[in-house]
Specification:
- With 240 residues, this protein is an alpha/beta fold.
- It folds into two domains: 128 residues, 3-Layer(aba) Sandwich (Trna Endonuclease, Chain: A, domain 1); 97 residues, no CATH class.
- Helices cover 33% and strands 28% of the residues.
- Strands 1-2-3-10-11-12 form a six-stranded mixed beta sheet, with helices on both faces. Strands 7-8-6-9 form a four-stranded mixed beta sheet, covered by helices on one side.
- The two termini are 27 Å apart.
Length: 240
């Protein structure tokens, strides 16, 4: 998570420098807010805007599972190459949260499910296996891929997507709430506070959608300004 924060702070820092600002990162130290100080007076907090699975008080960034499970699957399928017998199968994984981020356990469960499948009969295809209540694995026939028994075909995410505008409004409000709690202790130290969000949702927002998103954000207190910076760090998509 710290590496993600550093990456996002560097993106905002670059954007601010390109717009002729005097920028200092971590003016109060690396473990202390604000993330960035601009022109000696404006305190800036930075956060990644991404889709979250939210249930009650539980919240999980969708990417928190997707990237590690993708890597796990790429690793697992290679361990079966020595069993190649002239047939190759696609494997597709479907996620349905909440899922605990115990990746060692997840890896064992997926490996066990594949081992048990090989002991029985893979056909008929497509064949869907319930690895756990939250993880499903689908096998599909693939034209021969010499030397490969399994090829990872990708991840499906039950919790990804949704209506564009409600997802932006919900996740912007989540970021505001989280950062407001952090800033509250130090608010009096600076005359202005800005919040920069990096758009990792990347759904694409039209001009008419921007107005509707703004209407869905009731307030940005304690921040004076909120900026949504595009994923590449080149353009402000939304400003409140």
């Amino acid at each position: 998570m710290k590496n993600n924060n550093n990456q996002d702070e560097l993106l905002v820092t670059k954007y601010l420098l390109n717009n002729n600002n005097n920028v200092i990162r971590h003016p109060k130290g690396s473990n202390r807010t604000p993330d960035i100080l601009v022109n000696g007076i404006v305190a800036i907090e930075v956060m990644r805007l991404s889709q979250h699975f939210i249930k009650g008080k539980y919240s999980q960034d969708l990417q928190e599972l997707r990237a590690p499970i993708f890597n796990i699957m790429e690793e697992i399928v290679k361990t079966y190459d020595h069993l190649y017998n002239g047939k190759t199968y696609w494997i597709h994984i479907e996620l349905n949260r909440p899922i605990r981020t115990d990746f060692r356990k997840i890896k064992r469960e997926i490996k066990y499910a594949l081992d048990e499948l090989l002991k029985s009969n893979i056909v008929p295809l497509p064949n869907t296996i319930n690895v756990t209540r939250q993880i499903k694995m689908e096998l599909m026939d693939l034209s021969e891929r010499p030397g490969r028994l399994f090829v990872f075909a990708g991840l499906g995410d039950h919790d990804a997507g949704g209506w564009l505008l409600p997802e932006y409004i919900k996740n912007i409000n989540r970021c505001l709430s989280k950062k407001a709690n952090i800033v509250s202790k130090y608010y009096s130290e600076f005359s202005e506070w800005w919040l920069y969000l990096i758009d990792y949702m990347r759904f694409g927002i039209s001009k008419s959608s921007i107005i509707e998103i703004k209407n869905g954000i009731s307030h940005i207190t304690p921040f004076n300004h909120l900026y949504l910076l595009d994923y590449s760090g080149n353009e402000i998509i939304l400003e409140i």
